[in-house]
Amino acid sequence: MQYEDRTHIHLHPYWYIVFGALAVVFLVRPIVLKTYHDIKRLLNKRTQKKRYVNSSTQPAPQMHCDGDVCTIDSITTEKQAPKIDLEKLRVERQKRLAAKAQAEQEEKWKREKEEEKLRKQGNKLIEGNSQQQQIRVPQHSDDPLQNPWARMFKDPVQALSSSDIFRIMRGNELWVVNFYSLTCVHCKNFEPIYRAFGVKMQNKQNSKINVGSALYPNCQEAASSLGIRGFPTVKLFYKGKVEDFNMPRTVDNLERSAESFRRKLDPW
Questions:
Q1: Average pLDDT taken over every residue of the chain
Q2: Rg (CA), the chain
Q3: Which helix (H) or strand (E) holds 174?
Q4: 133 CB contacts (<8 Å, ≥6 apart)?
Q5: How far is it, in rounded angstroms, from Cα 98 to Cα 67?
Q6: Is the pLDDT of residue 133 over 50?
Q7: Which pLDDT score is estimated for 139?
Q8: 222 and 209 in contact (C-beta within 8 Å)?
Q9: CA–CA dist 181, 175 (Å, integer)
């Protein structure tokens, strides 16, 4: 009886071809991948160099500002992006805001000027009605003639003209008068503080301090006689005497200065 020899496996030639192809793939694959990446890296370098050369000949994109928003033209490459000057943008924004604030301030001053004009017309009408009713006011009265318009509306700060200031200088009452101008920025900053001082004196019981304001150039004659050259200027009047207010502009300092001026002339 003969036995079959199974120590050697006999494969079909087809399988030898398959195994040989797989061995070639595994051996050649790293070399192929490395060559592929090298070629790709070389092509990328050449493309970037070409883009840089082309971008250097193209004009830089322009920036357009509309109000507070700035836009840049479409950018195709990173080399075309312009350098934005942040300091310049900040300065331009500050200029726009300053111009806007200046326009609003001028509009406010114009409105206040119109109100002052209407107030004067109201004063003339009231004075005319008083003359028709034969209410005579002495020309050289010791007490100043209070502003009828301010008295009508209970304005804590009375608007004064040059004639009113001259009567105050001859009178015996204690007055704090602010000389101001509509074109003065410091006057605008001081106005709410001075009005708060007037309201405090109006609400204070037994207050002997009168608060007034004189608009330049309506008080030009009185301001020239007092030697006023700048604004705002606060003067204290009492019993024919005049004193300058030289303390920091606060409500308490205004009241303290007026009381000190009164005690100086009336120590008792």
A1: 77
A2: 45
A3: strand 174-181
A4: none
A5: 14
A6: no
A7: 44
A8: no
A9: 19
Distance CA 242, CA 88 (A): 51
Beta bridge partners of 72: 63
Residue 19: which residues within 8 A CB-CB, separation 6 or more?
none
Q: How confident is the model at residue 144 (pLDDT cuts 50, 70, 90)?
A: very low
pTM tops 0.85: no
Single out the residue of 245, 249, 252, 255 nearest to residue 189, CA to CA. 249
Using alpha carbons, list the distances in angstroms from residue 165 to 23, 64, 129, 260.
Answer: 115, 57, 23, 21
Q: What is the mean pLDDT of residues 53-62?
A: 55
- Give the whole-angstrom CA distance, residue 251 versus residue 255: 6
- Which residue's entry shows tokens 């040989």? 20
Residues contacting residue 202 through CB under 8 Å, at least 6 positions apart: 154, 156, 211
Nearest to 175 by CA among 243, 246, 229, 250: 243
The sign one gets for the Cα dihedral 144, 192, 203, 115 is positive
Q: What is the pLDDT of residues 202-230, one digit of tens each?
A: 888 788 899 999 999 889 999 999 999 88
Give me 172's structure tokens: 């015996």
Q: Cβ distance 208 to 151 under 8 Å? A: no
Q: How far apart are CA 69 and CA 93, in angstroms?
A: 10
The length of the chain, given as a count of residues: 268
Strand order through the sheet with 233-238: 158-160, 209-216, 174-181, 233-238, 241-244
Q: Residue 53: pLDDT band by 50, 70, 90 thresholds?
A: low
Short-list 221, 268, 251, CA closest to 234? 251
